[in-house]
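Here is one chain, start to finish.
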Amino acid sequence: KVTISSSSSSSLQMASGGRQSAAVTDKDLMEKTKKNKKSGKKQERLDTNPPKGTRDFFPLDMRLRNWLFDHWKEVARLYGFQEYDAPVLESEALYTRKAGEEVTQQLYNFEDKGGRAVALRPEMTPSLARMVMSTGGGMTMPLKWFSIPQCWRYERMTRGRRREHFQWNMDVWGVSGVGAEAELLRAMVTFFERVGITSDDVGIKVNSRLVIAEILTELGIPEEKFAATCVLVDKLEKVPLAAIQGELEELGLDQSVVERLLDVMSTSASKGIDYIKEVLGEESQAVQQLSQLLDLCKAYGIEDWVVLDATVVRGLAYYTGIVFEAFDRKGELRAIAGGGRYDKLLETFGGQPTPAAGFGFGDAVIVELLKERNILPTFDAAGIDAVVFAMNPDLLPVAIDAANKLRQGGLTVDLVLDKKKTKWVFKHADRLKANYCLIVAPDEYENGEVSIKNLTDGEQVTIKIDTLQDWASTTNSES
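Its structure:
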């Protein structure tokens, strides 16, 4: 049983070091089963729905998922990133930071049979930090890694938000300048362009948490409260100020401080970098950081995508500098992707300070966006080049040999294994959107030949069985 909590999972009661199946502990189970059978008691029907907030992936769904993942992987390859992975099950301590983040409230966490507090990963960045830290400083920097993990959060479900999702992560470690963020933003835009999304559809809000930090410093708020303040300010996109006023006051932020902070953030969102310069001054580190980033975005040719918006802070406590968020310009969907700089994350785990930046890009919202813009491809075709079947069971060995030759020539082949009527086979090939149907018939086989019908134009030819591999190789190279 999984308990959903940000606190320790000790409340989950385990017998003898772990929860045991009733089948193991109930000594009279077999006898009870026999009695149930004798009484004719009807077996309860299995609930075939996946757990709430999760998904099954049927073959058509997998084709869409693979298409999306292939685009993500290709963009990562183009930018010189290497793929990595980590366990979906991690130590709970990896996520229980004390800054009021939603993610710590949404853990799928429990105690395993060894009494260890563990959790399904809600995000990938802490796992990456753990892996880097495990090398004891032995990693050659800069490090450019990517992954597509499945992440789990017990949260309220909305359009584009589930309790599990896949997320494209790209991270750069060992680069202290905003060049890392600019490269990440360009990679994100490259993906959008590959799938037909333009800057009219999507924008990317950018900001620096140093804006908030410098304003809070000016207002006399101590540095140790910055991260928790950012987490609370991020919630204002979803709830009114009154809903978090108590939490702000607990941090020592009275209403005048919050109103000043929000005024600067909202005004700069409309007036841009010049207003931030007015408030913080030309020598402000936040101003210099944002100015450099905007200049680099222009050099990358993505200035049409980028929008300076000081209201963007992101909800994770470990961000320290530049933060960014891709958004639907129509305002119909939640954030598409987001990320930023997190130079102090390794320190929170007892490691050495290491500059790092990255982003997470979920699979659910982008698919909703592609559907809404009517640019999501169809995935009806199963990727089958040819269907092969024998007209009678005696010819199945010949059909197997023909299928082997086609496969050796590079074609994907679905071999009909049962005895079927010709009409069924052609309907089956049509369902698969196959390009060809190879028929092993008695008359042609006597001449060492098979028939191949092109299902696109209807043309049918006979081909010597011995030349099938060559035909397949030629057909594959032309497709």
